[in-house]
Amino acid sequence: MIIIHHLNDSRSQRILWLLEELGLEYKVNRYERDAETRLAPPALLEVHPLGKSPVLEEDSLKIHETGAIVEYIIDKYDDGKLAPKRDSIEHIRYTEWIHYAEGSAMLPLLLRLYTSRLGDAAAPLMPRIDGETINHFSYLSKSLGENDYFLGDELSAADIMLSFPIEAANMRGGLAKLPNLAEFVKRIQARPAYKKALERGGEYSFFIK
Ligand SMILES: N[C@@H](CCC(=O)N[C@@H](CS)C(=O)NCC(=O)O)C(=O)O
Fold it and tell me: Which H, E and C letters describe 44-103, residue by residue?
């Protein structure tokens, strides 16, 4: 049985969504963020030394890092529904997106989050952070173009990986100038599997009610 160690309101929501898209059975062990610090509770440190979510557990195996968990699930359980064939050019594009989500797109968002606590002291950093935010999200918008999903007409696990940075950027109207990305958020959030995953995961403030 797959167990997902899931923190509310977090990146690990993607793993629940992926499992729902594949129709797999799984158990969710829920952890709640500290109301004041928003950090994970110490109980997650008993699951993995980083104390972060998601962590997938199956038999004696534990995996952390969302992209690695997605690759594990796809390799083991997907029969071609959510990933292109290996050794194809589409698979290379797919792999780029899988890594890009956490490796590149999240960085300007995290920098903004952390520097926002510095008040005026953050001012010298803001042009660079703004520039990188525009750089990455314009790239995402251009890449999606008129397509429904990043690889074309059909959902892939790359969309599931990209959902978190795009949903996070969409908060408080952040994607007003990139309407195709805002539409992407509506499109994924309307999927039945996405909604089922929300029921399993609990509070997720990136969902547009
Ligand atoms: N790149 C990692 C990031 C993991 C991560 O930072 N998870 C956040 C959830 S959004 C977390 O557990 N934060 C709680 C904390 O740092 O205390 C991944 O995608 O798995």
Answer: HHHCCCCCCCCEEEECCEEEECHHHHHHHHHHHHCCCCCCCCCCCHHHHHHHHHHHHHHH
